[in-house]
Design goal:
The protein is of the alpha+beta class. Helix content is 40%, strand content 16%. Helix 4 runs parallel beside helix 5. The longest helix is centred in the first third of the chain and has 19 residues, at 89-107.
Length: 353
């Protein structure tokens, strides 16, 4: 029987070919492909190659410009503004984080506001660039409406994710990447692809009633995390990512699955030079002690271990790189159709289901 597992390298090569055929330069195509496959490697298939057909459709429609080059429009020492010019969000976010790191290296802290960008996938892909360079990184973005303001029943705010990452000495970096809804909307789409019900508490239908039907959730509302707190954090992230940057906000942002509509997404990237506050080696030693203290607490009933933020993803990455990736049948079928539409050989993929 043919092994349905796919190597990460083969999947990156395939996605790169799709992006190149869609008009991206080789470097930009590889970046965008790698960010998707990395999400799968971390175990976040909701943000992995499942999304490749969505991005390809946006490039084909012209909603996203494959040839756009992000442009710096404000240069103010530790601060900058980048106009993404409707480029792929991954291209813009990488440019913004690299710019924030460079400004932090010069000034101790760097902040880069981004306007006219697109969905960039997993935020931690970009904050880890800072952590691996010896900086603390932050990245926020806004997204298309998914939740209602607290007390309402019409969606008006996105899940507006954000991420922090920091080096952790001998450990993989400590990294947080969360949306402000009870669950990332991509997980609802993934459940629909798998033909699975979603847990109660994730979402409501269009009438504001709790639902386990992923399609009803897509047509309705995703619940905020932690009740009113998730709503409030999402509102703040929209201020940082949209209102402050001069980009779209609220209903002015379109999602990656809306093939014909310009995104309007904005981001805010920050980097802090740890070495300006204390020697990097001392910080990393303190991080190791911090992690050790968390892991030393007695375990709750049924718990396997205490994991620091980002540890599970680092373990999943190592295992999936070793063993290969298993994709849902619907995702593999979508990728085969995408290969056919672009005149590409689907051989790098596992056989179509």
């Amino acid at each position: 029987m043919t092994d349905p597992r796919i190597s990460a390298d083969a999947l990156v090569s395939f996605a790169t070919a799709i992006y190149t055929a869609s008009g991206l330069s080789p470097d930009h195509a590889h970046l965008c492909a790698d960010s998707l496959v990395q999400a799968d490697l971390w175990g976040h298939q909701s943000h992995g190659v499942m999304r490749l057909p969505w991005y390809a459709a946006r490039l084909q429609s012209g909603a996203c410009d494959p040839r756009a080059i992000p442009e710096r429009v404000v240069d103010a020492g530790g601060l900058a503004v980048i106009d993404g010019r409707e480029a792929m969000g991954q291209v813009v976010a990488a440019r913004a984080m690299d710019e924030a790191i460079a400004r932090a290296r010069a000034h101790g802290i760097g902040a880069v506001a981004v306007r006219h960008s697109n969905h960039f996938g997993t935020a931690m892909y970009f904050t880890l660039r800072a952590a691996r360079a010896g900086f603390i990184g932050f990245l926020s973005t806004n997204a298309s409406p998914a939740m209602a303001p607290w007390g309402g029943r019409v969606k008006a705010l996105g899940n507006n994710p954000w991420s922090w990452a920091a080096p952790a000495g001998r450990h993989a970096p400590l990294v947080l990447d969360i949306a402000n809804t009870a669950v990332a909307r991509g997980k609802v789409y993934l459940a629909r692809q798998r033909g699975e019900a979603i847990p109660l508490g994730w979402a409501m239908d269009a009438e504001g009633r709790p639902t386990t039907d992923p399609q009803a959730a897509i047509d309705g509302l995703i619940a905020p995390m932690a009740g009113h707190k998730g709503y409030a954090i999402s509102a703040v992230m929209d201020v940082l990512s949209g209102v402050l940057t001069g980009s779209g906000f609220g209903a002015g942002v379109a999602g990656p699955y809306q093939a014909e509509r310009r995104s309007g997404a904005g981001h805010l990237a920050l980097a802090i030079d740890i070495a300006r506050l204390q020697p990097l080696a001392e910080f990393e030693s303190r991080m190791e002690r911090f992690i050790a203290e968390m892991k030393a607490v007695p375990l709750a009933a049924g718990a396997e271990a205490v994991f620091y933020p980002g540890e599970i993803e680092a373990r999943a990455d190592a295992g999936n790189r070793r063993d290969g990736l298993l994709l849902p049948d619907d995702t593999r079928a979508d990728l085969h159709r995408l290969a056919e539409a672009h005149g590409l050989d689907p051989a790098p993929l596992a056989p179509a289901p």
